[in-house]
Write a structure and sequence with these properties.
heterodimer; A: alpha+beta; Aldehyde Oxidoreductase, domain 3; Aldehyde Oxidoreductase, domain 4; 18 helices; globular; B: Uridine Diphospho-n-acetylenolpyruvylglucosamine Reductase, domain 2; Uridine Diphospho-n-acetylenolpyruvylglucosamine Reductase, domain 3; five-stranded antiparallel beta sheet; four-stranded antiparallel beta sheet
């Protein structure tokens, strides 16, 4: 069981990771040359206010201040995905920290003086910093949405009445999850280089091709052209898409005709950044006496913040995706996405599932307890299996969910055997389990298509260039594409150069999101390799080599005789059997699905409420593992990011909508000193549709974590945690009110 | 009318800073007289400068040779103003002599911060949650102050620090070092704090205790307890400590002492924790840390017997 298939190149050393560790990677901020014009913004101190007047004159009088932009310079331009609702500079501030006026200056000191010299008058409007307040606020935040509800979703599947009648036991609860910033290492950094009418936007991004497409339309109105270059990126986790800072910098660069840059200080990056959607989830699950999960009802409210970004898609995913883990007979989900005066939300690793898993997987645990069935056994009995079509329309190909459950059960039992419960007045030990599932890409994301392109181009010097709009966002994409092509073409990895995300060069790509890049890009890499090999055998015959000459030999000869330009191929992958989901999310949205089950052992200090995760097990069905080191890295990283979400991280907003913890001192992201031992287990699944049998591992590891820890805390102390984060003080309080 | 750009929203860039590197006290005082702010480790100062846009003139204290001295004479320890925390944290001799101070010095921030930050910097920052402060209080620290004229005065730490972020340092004065009274025979001290993260965090509450036993090694002859992060300054929980004197450290005595410590502190409720919870932490930490201080004596004796 859980034998690991040999990865593509043995345990591939992560060359990009090594570069990063040695400080060789160049991020956007490293590419700013001395003399580059610096950009900053004046931010609204109010959560909701109309800008009455702006006086830029005192700023422009400061030596060193070169130009100022106001909302009028961006009339008619709004950003968002798919709803466009976010202005570049705003006439109505909808959260504290929103950019109102932008200043460009020759140096940082003048820039700060310029920002401080601006006169901006506001008319303060009533604000709402919670969903409950926004629903009763007599003041729409956006004129088109009088009740502040951005979107309502309803998903009813199966015969609810018939299912309801079969239920003998219901469990229910209301759960509250929090907004957290993405906590990437590299704050938002934007550099725009000017080359005549061409504006070159240098910034880390999930989707350079789409970014270029969106911005080209805008800069075309200024008579300019645009390309996007993505240098190394210091993490994103779902945060770095379109952003007002890009257009502010583009506009200044165009107007001034020189390079401009803006690197957000960490605090600015947090107050005007993006967060995971906070959610309130009412859920009930019904089962028969013999432990068949029959019906599940979800009512969910999501906090969109001031602007939409990917809020609608995340809300729908949170409402239904986790349902696909079990063979329910009927489902009923309702979700509302609500505008508030909080920091705009954005998709974040897990895309809504960590939130809904926190509710669902705790209720499954409660059911197990009520029915007297082992929680792992209850999950196994109801687990989705290969060949199933779920109520939401997922056609499940390979499925190693039960194998994951078996694996963690074995590990937990062994741990319990080795560590018999100790009687201690202060510390309580407990075990918890939780599961999760995730798609690979999302056919509903871009309604036009879901595909990947990857080109292999032989350079005159004999280097084989991989070019793709599918980008490296820190997941190991460069190494993976290189390894796949090297293996297929039997070439040394040193002969391959990987160029991703430079829109002047690479074919169009939807980008890195929804755990799709290894799968889609990997398949395109295989297709490109096949075509390239064919091109090689054609050329071999023409230049007098044996038809079966090695690719390396053909390449060497092509270089020698000057025929390198004939060796190129573009591979493509577009899954056949996926379907565009309907408004309720029904459809086979992915070519394959991943599954996972986690377990942990916790130690709770009942005197202080402090939770210590003693051991963590994470079993994942990710298809065949292509790069063991990277796969483990994703799992260990995802678990720790999940532990931060579960136990510590949060955004604290005061009554005026001001962020109280704009830094990592009080947004307690785990440090190395907080690392817990994570045991990674990969199932033996082989996915026919995937590249070399692989699925994906980027997002799945964060999904079950908060639920897993909450179940362990209950097991240790008998108290149920319905609210995140589960801080020591909250746990201490629950122990002293419930017990 | 609200200010147009609220101070909290000022972008936090480090302003252009002029750094002076004086080589002796005379040069340092000249820099300070010319408006420079003394810079020791800079771990707080640089953050402030980024947030406030000032100071823009800094005078580094690391060039003053005598401020690098750690002097141990008998029970007295003097630590110069330029000595970084990591240097005292790795000294075994100091660890047994001024345990509570060293345990605090060992948990400030992170490894990188401790390599840079100084003990005197921690004192001058005067944060009620400063990790080295409770230890300095129970070790009767005296703050050594000098002025440009060369005159010196020594101030008790509890008088030197007067409010959050405020000290009684007069204009034109600098702190040259700190002198502490180390442990004598039959004496132990310890420090402990509660944080939600294992590094780079601030204490929600912290406690230092110092205990001296009678020659029976069971009856408490003298005790002091200092509480951090639960009042405007570090608090001397003298009443709680007095409960232990003349008694042995039975669980009921400890609980009584811890309860009194929790009662006499003055915690606030803020975004980090509620006052209630901080009191609870003081209760838990006090019990733990009085025992740890006592254990230093008994464990120390055990090792003497063994040798």
């Amino acid at each position: 069981m859980s034998e690991i298939q040999p990865p593509v190149q043995g345990p591939v050393s992560a060359t990009r990771a090594t570069e990063r560790a040695r400080g060789l990677a160049r991020y956007a901020a490293d590419l700013i040359l001395p003399g580059t014009v610096l950009v900053g913004v004046a931010r609204s101190p109010h959560a909701h206010a109309r800008v009455i007047s702006i006086d830029t004159k005192p700023a422009l009088e400061i030596p060193g201040v070169l130009a100022v932009l106001t909302p009028a310079d961006f009339d008619g331009i709004e950003l968002g995905h798919p709803d466009t609702d976010e202005p570049v500079l705003t006439r109505v501030a909808r959260y504290v920290g929103e950019a109102v006026v932008a200043v460009a200056a020759s140096d940082q000191d003048s820039l700060l003086r310029g920002i401080e010299a601006l006169h901006i008058d506001y008319q303060v409007l009533p604000h709402a910093c919670s969903v409950a307040d926004a629903l009763t606020l007599d003041q729409p935040l956006h004129a088109a949405y009088p009740d502040n509800v951005v979107r309502r979703f309803n998903a009813k599947r199966g015969d609810w009445q018939a299912a309801e009648q079969r239920v003998s036991t219901w469990v229910s609860g209301t759960f509250q999850t929090q907004a957290v910033p993405h906590a990437y290492l590299e704050p938002r950094a934007t550099l725009v280089r000017v080359n005549g009418e061409l504006l070159e936007l240098v910034t880390g991004s999930h989707f350079p091709s789409v970014l270029a497409e969106t911005y080209r339309e805008i800069v075309a109105g200024w008579g300019a052209q645009l390309e996007v270059v993505t240098p190394d990126i210091g993490g994103s986790f779902g945060a770095k898409w379109e952003h007002p800072t890009h257009l502010i910098c583009l506009a200044f660069a165009h107007r001034l005709g020189c390079d401009v840059a803006m690197v957000l200080p960490r605090r600015d990056d947090m107050i005007a950044g993006r967060t995971r959607l906070a959610m309130r989830i009412q859920m009930r699950i019904g089962a028969t006496d013999d432990g068949e999960l029959v019906a599940k009802e979800t009512v969910l409210w999501a906090d969109n913040g001031a602007y939409s970004a990917h809020g609608p898609a995340v809300t729908l995913a949170a409402a239904i995706r986790m349902d696909n883990l079990y063979r329910f007979s009927a489902l009923n989900a309702k979700a509302q996405l609500v505008y508030t005066n909080n920091i705009p939300s954005e998709c974040f690793r897990g895309f809504g599932s960590p939130q809904s898993a926190f509710a669902q997987e705790q209720l499954i645990d409660e059911l197990a307890e009520r029915l007297g069935i082992d929680p792992i056994e209850l999950r196994r009995r109801n687990a989705v299996r290969a060949g199933d079509t779920t109520l939401h329309g997922w056609q499940v190909g390979s499925c190693g969910f039960t194998e994951c459950l078996d694996a963690i059960q074995q590990r937990v039992q062994a741990h319990q055997h080795e560590n018999p419960p100790s009687i201690n007045s202060r510390y309580r030990f407990g075990y918890g389990v939780a599961a999760g599932t995730h798609g690979i890409s999302n056919r509903g994301y871009d309604r036009r298509f879901d595909r990947a392109l990857l080109s292999l181009v032989l350079a005159p010097d004999g280097m084989l260039c991989i070019e793709s709009g599918e980008v490296e966002i820190g997941c190991g994409t460069v190494d993976l594409f290189g390894a796949i092509v090297a293996e297929r073409l039997k070439l040394d990895r040193e002969r391959i150069r990987v160029v991703l995300g430079d829109t002047a060069t690479v074919p169009y790509g939807l980008g890195c999101f929804a755990s799709r890049t290894a799968f889609f890009g990997g398949r395109a890499a295989l297709d490109a390799s096949r075509q390239f090999a064919r091109a090689c055998s054609h050329l071999a015959i023409e230049i007098g080599l044996p038809a079966k000459a090695s690719i390396a030999t053909v390449i060497d000869t092509a270089v020698a005789v000057g025929r390198t330009t004939e060796l190129r191929a573009t591979g493509r992958y577009e899954p056949k059997h996926v379907t565009l989901p309907d408004e309720s999310g029904y459809g086979n949205t992915s070519p394959a699905y991943t599954f996972g089950a986690h377990a942990c052992c916790v130690r709770i200090d009942i005197v202080t409420g402090l939770t210590n995760v003693v051991h963590y097990w994470a079993a994942h069905d990710t298809g065949r593992v292509l790069n063991l080191q990277r796969a483990r890295g994703q799992v260990v990283g995802g678990v720790h990011q999940g532990l931060g979400f579960a136990l510590a991280e949060t955004t604290l907003v005061d009554n005026h909508g001001r962020l109280q913890n704009p830094g990592y001192l009080d947004d307690r992201v785990a440090t190395f000193a907080d690392a817990v031992p994570v045991e990674c287990i990969f199932t033996s699944t082989f996915e026919q549709e995937g590249p070399n049998g692989a699925k994906s591992i980027a997002e799945p590891p964060i999904i079950p974590v908060a639920a897993c820890v909450a179940n362990a805390i209950h097991n240790a102390t008998g108290t149920r945690q319905r609210r995140l984060p589960m801080t020591p003080e909250r746990i201490w309080r629950s122990l002293h009110t419930e017990g | 009318m609200m200010p147009t750009v609220s101070p909290v929203l000022r972008p936090s860039y480090l302003p252009p800073v002029e750094l002076h590197r004086p080589n002796d006290l005379g040069e340092l005082f000249a820099c300070v007289a010319a408006g420079a702010c003394p810079l020791a480790g800079g771990t707080d100062l640089v953050v402030w400068a980024s947030q406030r846009g000032e100071p823009r003139q800094l005078a580094w204290t690391g060039g003053i040779d005598e401020w690098h001295i750690v002097d141990i004479s008998g029970q007295q320890v003097r630590i110069g103003a330029a000595v970084p925390l990591s240097r005292i944290a790795r000294s075994g001799e100091l660890r047994s002599l001024i345990s509570a101070v060293i345990e605090g010095a060992s948990v400030v921030g992170s490894v990188q911060l401790r390599n840079q930050a100084t003990l005197v910097g921690n004192v001058c920052t005067a944060s009620p949650g400063g990790d080295t402060l409770p230890g300095l209080y129970v070790h009767d620290a005296m703050v050594d102050v000098v002025n440009a004229a060369g005159s010196r005065r020594s101030i008790k730490i509890s008088e030197f620090i007067c409010a959050p972020g405020k000290t009684n340092l007069a204009p034109g004065e600098l702190v040259a070092g700190v002198t502490v009274r180390g442990l004598g025979p039959l004496e132990g001290s310890a420090f402990c704090r509660f944080t939600q993260r294992n590094a780079l965090d601030l204490a929600l509450a912290s406690v230092a205790a110092r205990v001296r036993f009678e020659s029976d090694e069971q009856t408490v002859a003298q005790a002091s307890i200092a509480l951090g992060a639960v009042g405007p300054t570090v608090l001397d929980a003298g009443q709680a400590a007095a409960l232990l004197v003349g008694r042995t450290l039975e669980p009921t005595q400890l609980r009584e002492c811890a309860n009194l410590a929790a009662e006499c502190c003055q915690p606030i409720t803020d975004h980090r924790a509620s006052a209630d919870y901080r009191r609870q932490l003081v209760r838990a930490l006090t019990e733990e840390i009085v025992l740890a201080a006592a254990k230093q004596v008994t464990a120390g004796c055990a090792s003497v017997e063994a040798s």
